[in-house]
Design goal:
alpha+beta; six-stranded antiparallel sheet
Length: about 140
């Protein structure tokens, strides 16, 4: 299924984040590093809600890939609504889609892949975790 991450109605999980003064570049626009932090905040918040937080656990999920698409300029001050949802699921990974919204306008999107690792290599995730992610995908 294709999810249009620029539309708020596709998201199942929300997090609110303040744009900080330090998020700006020399032109007083929110910089690329801040966009990456916002996307990370979205997917980690969703993982926490699903009890699939990546970390120092082995076995566990690790960040395998992330892509961020800049859509519009943003400036300080402001309050972002960060929407996230599971958008894909495989035997040893899942994908999260993230949308960044300022005053109901999408300023950026992100796609993140988290892979299940054990002893330094990818392998199929446990059935109970996969079932929880499959339920979130279908939500």
């Amino acid at each position: 299924m294709h999810w249009n991450l620029e539309h708020q109605d596709v998201f199942t999980h929300w997090h609110t984040e303040q744009i900080r003064y330090s998020d700006q570049d020399a032109q007083a626009h929110v910089n690329n590093v801040a966009f990456a932090v916002y996307v990370e905040t979205g997917w980690t918040s969703l993982c926490h809600a699903l009890d699939t937080v990546p970390g120092m656990r082995d076995p566990g999920f690790v960040l395998a890939d992330t892509t961020i698409t800049f859509r519009r300029l943003a400036t300080w001050p402001g309050e972002l609504r960060i929407g996230s949802r599971v958008i894909g699921l495989g035997a040893d990974f899942f994908h999260i889609g993230t949308g960044l919204f300022l005053l109901d306008e999408c300023i950026g999107t992100g796609k993140t892949e988290l892979a299940w690792m054990h002893d330094g290599r990818r392998e199929p995730m446990p059935a109970d975790i996969r079932a929880r992610l499959a339920q979130a995908l279908g939500a």
